[in-house]
Write a structure and sequence with these properties.
It is built from 18 helices and ten strands. Helix content is 53%, strand content 9%.
Length: 399
């Protein structure tokens, strides 16, 4: 097993047969010295909340790119985000972010999400065929995160490609030299832009999340300038890349299971369960990485201290040891507390509630306002060449 096994055309098109092999091969599958994969639900579910597992982001990058990775702007920027940190620093940063990203703030976005969804559907009506990725799935969460940050949607669109390049840095397989250079420039461009936004908010505070981060205080401490910049960039990137891919994957899954699609059309009250099931069946974020800070016993095996483990969330969500008929989409499936789509433990996705709200609104309105909507390129989908964030380039639909 090697890194490139996760960047083959077959893997990009359908990683689930590969995952079945990983689960069958054992609790841990060696990838390189002290680096391994796991795809079993029981293993990942046990390790994610274990405080003996943590983040060593830069060493995991160096293992793939070499020592020069430490000097690359894209990796430096990501290392400064709370996503890559451990307690107590992570605890402080997450507490500050949660003050600005709480349930009340998210619920206030419901009306915005509904209005944005309706506006995008209005723009599509009257057309014979649309691309649901570029005309709906991407602009919907992008416009919402721009409202949350109070930046012009035009700027969000302008930096959309930069966000995609930054996401590529999370892939397990190393980027090419050219792709790395473009990702570095994207990180620098985003940093320059958001430093300007932060300067504006310091001069004229608003009610947006950037202003909240500037003003947020926990235990007498505030975020530093670099911490605000890096975490605002993280929110911008994660706020639309992940949700847009989840929406596209959900629409594909439903159209590949027409009986389930008709069931949802006939009973819109199932939308919450349908979104949860689609998020299990074909999630956007396919893997996360952790490092063992101590020897850990799991599933009868010892995970040695210092081991870097790539945890395949997409595999865990299809594990037959945990889910009945895991390769079948069932929108009536009872929600499971062990769904690993958004991770678990102290690094559980901060935006999970917002993402699920957006997905429920989007799916409900699409199916009720466009009852004749039908995907037309199901047999010719072009999956993005990423092994971490799964989604398609285009999703054509007849209205």
């Amino acid at each position: 097993m090697k890194f490139t096994d996760l960047s083959s055309p077959a893997y990009f098109d359908n990683p689930y047969p590969f995952y079945e092999g990983i689960r069958s091969a054992g609790a841990f599958v060696p990838l390189a010295p002290s680096i391994m994969l796991t795809g079993r639900h029981a293993v990942i579910d046990a390790l994610l909340p274990d405080r003996r597992m943590g983040k060593t982001y830069m060493p995991s990058v160096v293992a793939r790119y070499g020592e020069s990775a430490r000097e690359q702007p894209v990796f430096q920027a990501l290392e400064r985000t709370f996503l890559m940190m451990n307690p107590p620093t992570h605890t402080r940063l997450r507490a500050l972010l949660m003050k600005a990203f709480n349930a009340r703030q998210i619920e206030m976005l419901r009306t915005i999400a509904e209005e944005t969804t309706d506006s995008l559907i209005d723009a599509m009506q009257g057309k014979r065929e649309v691309d649901l990725v570029s005309e709906f799935a991407m602009p919907l969460p992008l416009q919402i995160i721009c409202r949350l940050l109070d930046v012009p949607v035009e700027d969000g669109v302008r930096f959309g490609d930069a966000a995609s390049l930054l996401v590529s840095a999370f892939d397990l397989a190393p980027m090419s030299a050219d792709a790395l250079a473009r990702a570095n420039q994207a990180a620098l461009d985003l940093e320059q832009y958001f430093r300007g936004v932060i300067a504006q908010r310091r001069a004229t505070p608003g009610h947006d999340i950037v202003s909240s981060l500037i003003q947020a205080e926990e235990g007498g401490e505030r975020l530093s300038e670099d911490e605000i910049v890096s975490n605002v960039i993280l929110l911008f990137v994660a706020g639309h890349e992940t949700t847009s891919n989840m929406l596209g994957n959900a629409l594909i899954a439903l159209h590949r299971h027409p009986a389930q699609l008709e069931r949802l059309r006939g009973d819109p009250s199932l939308v919450s369960k349908a979104v949860a099931e689609c998020a299990r069946y074909d999630t956007a974020v396919q893997m996360v990485v952790r490092t063992a800070f101590d020897d850990i016993e799991v599933e009868g095996q010892t995970l040695p201290r210092g081991s870097i483990v790539f945890m395949l969330l997409g595999s865990a969500n299809r594990d037959p040891e945990r889910f009945d008929a895991p390769d079948t989409l069932d929108i009536g499936r009872e929600p499971s507390g062990h769904l690993l789509t958004f991770g678990a433990g102290i690094h559980y996705c901060l935006g999970a509630r917002l993402a699920m709200m957006e997905l429920e609104i989007a799916l409900h309105k699409l199916l009720t306002r466009l009852p004749q909507l039908r995907l037309t390129n199901l047999d010719a989908l072009q999956w993005r060449r990423r092994n971490n964030l799964r989604g398609v380039e285009t999703l054509l639909a007849a209205l």
